[in-house]
Amino acid sequence: MRLATVDPVTGVANRRSFDRTMDRVWRSCRRQRLEVALLMIDVDFFKAYNDRLGHPAGDKCLKQVARGLAAALMRPDDFLARYGGEEFAVILPRTGLDGACVVAERLKERIRKLSIVHPASPAGNCVSISQGVACQIPEGRYNSAFLVAMADQALYEAKRSGRNRVAVSAEAARVCLSDFAPEQSHNRTPDSAKPALVRPKPQYPN
Asked: What's this model's pTM, rounded to 2 decimal places?
């Protein structure tokens, strides 16, 4: 069972486990009419990391990133999986868009603090992550694949806009992203307001 559901490199859930969990959470939240949020996460310039340092170092890097992401999730129902290659995904049941961005900022900060040296990254001296955020109340003609597509679209926007940042799916951005601190709770539903698409990359001192 473990071999079938756990990624052998990182030790977190694999794609098969993600698909099953996503389907289960989607159906559960549909019955309760609750929001589901999804984070799609990409390790920035990971191919360049592998090319410069080699695949064994790349595997070690992915393990460190996976552990950092797992350590930053605070609720037992929050689900982390390796989606494929250098991509991870986090399922956040009962979480609105603002709350999902709280988690995304926390994850980004946790990976920054790992200080994994990346000698070939145009985004900085250390390994960083880009994230796409989407949120949906399961209903009508939509299925979980729609949520994945929205989060993936947002991830593309984060990468296109410079990486090391969080972006929100334009279709999911029905609320204004408040300036939450990384340690704030995300287990609540935000008020409606204007949408915001890309959170700016913070500047850290050298």
From this structure: 0.82
Concatenate the DSSP letters of all residues of the chain into one string: -HHHHB-TTTSSB-HHHHHHHHHHHHHHHHHHT--EEEEEEEETTHHHHHHHH-HHHHHHHHHHHHHHHHHH--STT-EEEEEETTEEEEEEET--HHHHHHHHHHHHHHHHHH--B-TT-TT-SB--EEEEEEEE---TT--HHHHHHHHHHHHHHHHHTTSSSEEE-TTT--S------TTS---SPPPP-----BPPPPP---
Q: What is the CA radius of gyration of the chain?
A: 16
What is the Cα–Cα distance from 30 to 23, expressed in whole angstroms? 11
Our answer to whether residue 86 is catalytic in this structure is yes
Q: With contact defined as beta carbons under 8 Å apart, do 84 and 14 qualify? A: no
pLDDT (tens digit per residue) in 63-86: 999 999 999 999 999 999 999 999
Is residue 99 a contact partner of residue 187, using CB atoms and an 8 Å limit?
A: yes
